[in-house]
Amino acid sequence: MTNVSDPMSFRTRLTSFFVVIVIAPMLAIGLLAFRLIGSSDQGKADARAAGLNTAATSLYDAASSHAKAIAEQLAQQVALSNATAAGGHAQAQARLTRLAAAAGLIRVSLFSGTTRLIDVGDKTDAIATGGATVAATPQHPSATIEVSVLTAAEYVSDLTSANTGVSVVVRQGPRTLESSLPAALGHKLGGQETVHLGGIDYRAITVLHQGFGIKPVHVTVLLNLAKTEASVQSSQLLAAVFIAGFVLLAFAFSILASRALQGQLGRFLEAARRLGSGDFSAPVPTEGRDEFAALGDEFNSMSAQLERRIDELGRERARLRESIRRIGQTFASNLDRPALLELALKTAVDAVQASCGRASVSPGPGAPLEESARVGSLAGFEARIEDAERAALASLQLGEASVGDQFVAAAPLGPAEGERNPRGIITVARRGRAIDEDDREVLRSLAAQATLALENVDLHHQVQRQAVTDELTALANHRRFQELLATEMEQVRRYHYPVGLIMLDVDNFKMVNDTYGHPQGDIVLAEVARVVRESSREADAPARYGGEEMAVILPHTDLEGAHAIAERVRLAVESLEIPLLDKRGSLRVTASFGVAASTDGNKDALIAIADVALYAAKHQGKNRTVSGSAPAADVVGAE
Predict the structure, then answer these.
(1) Are residues 189 and 168 in contact, defined by beta-carbon separation less than 8 angstroms?
(2) 278/261 Cα distance (integer angstroms)
(3) Number of alpha helices (DSSP H) and beta strands (DSSP E) in the chain
(4) Under 8 Å between Cβ of 419 and 463
(5) Between vectors from CA 616 to CA 611 and to CA 619, what angle results, nearest 5°?
(6) Nearest 10 degrees: CA dihedral of 272, 277, 283, 284?
């Protein structure tokens, strides 16, 4: 007896094959997707909580910095001796009260060492303090002033009003200063943690802020996780429905494919091999109008789409290389304003696939915009570009204009500090396709990045200027003077040309301060510095040497020429009429000048000769110019 078993049919084998390679992996992918959805949403919640905490820290630090700046101003106005002299405490407290009210301060305290002499304002709710050292007195060699411009209630209100689902708790030691979440009262919070309060889960981040002279303040930001949990469940349900549908579709497809593949498997296999080798030239042959023929058509369509996608990937790869190259250019030119604008414009044109564009920027405060970069030809777009830019400048938002198949968008760059008008504008134009929301978001983002880059350039230049410029006189400071003179003397030693030096000192300046006060003395120095600056040649280098003493480096100038220039400056100073601060007349001052010249490149000797000549001018009666030609003994002169 022979047992004959029917072999498994191709349809059955194919169905089993699909179950193994499709359904089982999809179930595994579904499980992984569930976990990834939960992790992703939790990560978003953590990222938002971290962002809110950063915002809270920035707000606190900004208030502390503001308080410190005000404290430094008040420190110059408050005399500690007035607070301890007989009857002076009440006067000092009244004065601090007026100053606090005028500056909108929450709390002001005056200390001598660790002793609080005066305390004005909110004594329980003030946070984010800043402080400064008050001028010392014989009675109190160490004194500080402490200022706060923010209350815990205002701080919490600012953070929670603009952020839904966010709560803030502010504590100082064991005491809660302010809380927008009653359920958090009495609950110990610290570091990063997930807490359960009032039946709701919150993601909490606590940061310690060390104030000036007060106990540390703990700020806790709590993010409500209810929406995150609901989003996870919704996403997981959607993923489950999608996977179930895909599994059912795959199972049905396996049955249909098993019937159609019986006669055409060889041709499909050959076509698949050609596609695997990158040959898209020969499509899969199809016969008839049945399901298998339709599958063949779809296979051919997929092959064409894959070929197009490979071409697109090649173009994307080229664009990626170009973007990387531009990033390198950005790092190389991050302090070059025109280069930054040109890169921003090119990136904007590429990002929205525009045909042309231009970038315009204001050369200075209040100046109209001037074109600084252009990509492509603007021919035919001029009117629309003007309309879009006008709309952007009027609204300080993205401006658009269109007519026919022309579409233009203009993104304004944020205004400079203290200005209302935008510092520039980036405009792109194209034909055939309207500006959509994705394009708008890209342009807004690029404009914001370009604005930040320009701010960094301005800040760098400002810091450079401040590092070498005296704040009161706007002349080069002493360090810069020494650097410039040393550089000039190097050239003198190499090329042996003469260099002159003028040293000048305002006569009787101490008497001006004693009679009219230091603010009037500052005005005198500023006016004398202005005369020195305006009287100097373009190649000269005026500087504040120290106190009421100034200097001017005179390249390619011998002793006679330096003396003539010094006399011109002296006469200009002598003719000054400086208005008094009390508006009761004007003040006249004079200055004494010492002049020297050198051709040997000895910087210290040149300064010494000019300095001796200056003191000789003082000794001989002031308001005169004395030239020095060689080192001399010290001259005893008047102040």
Answers:
(1) no
(2) 23
(3) 15, 21
(4) no
(5) 130
(6) -20
CB 489 within 8 A of CB 602: yes
For the record, the structure tokens of 500 come out as 């002159």
3-class SS of residue 7: coil
Rg, the chain, Cα only = 39
Residue 597, token pair as written in the block: 């010249």
Residues counted in the chain: 639
Structure tokens, 319: 């664009």
Active site residues: 548
With beta carbons less than 8 A apart as the criterion, state whether 628 and 606 touch. Answer: no
- pLDDT tens figures, 223-268: 887 766 666 667 667 767 777 776 677 666 666 665 656 556 666 6
Please answer whether residues 587 and 580 qualify as being in contact, where contact means their C-beta atoms are separated by less than 8 angstroms: yes
Q: What is the pLDDT of residues 39-86, one digit of tens each?
A: 666 777 778 878 888 888 888 888 888 888 888 877 777 555 555 454
409 close to 400: Cβ distance less than 8 angstroms: yes
Longest dimension (CA), the chain: 144
Beta bridge partners of 470: none
Q: How far apart are the first and last CA of the chain?
A: 136
Three-state SS string over 448-479 comes to: HHHHHHHHHHHHHHHHHHHHHECCCCCCECHH
Give dist(CA 206, CA 208) in Å, integer.
7
Burial 311-332 (b: 16+ CB within 10 A, else e): eeeeeeeeeeeeeeebeebbee
pLDDT digits (tens, 9 = 90+) for 306-363: 777 777 776 765 665 565 455 545 544 556 778 888 888 888 898 888 999 999 988 7
User: Edge-to-edge strands of the sheet including 166-172?
Assistant: 175-179, 166-172, 217-224, 200-209, 192-197
Classify residue 421 by burial, with Cβ atoms within 10 Å: 0-12, 13-18, 19+. middle
Cβ atoms < 10 Å from Cβ of 533: 16
Q: Which of 166, 188, 215 lies closest to 59, judged by CA?
A: 166
* Phi, then psi, of 425 in degrees rounded to 5: -155, 145
Which of 84-98, 127-141, 364-378, 382-396 has the least mean pLDDT?
A: 84-98
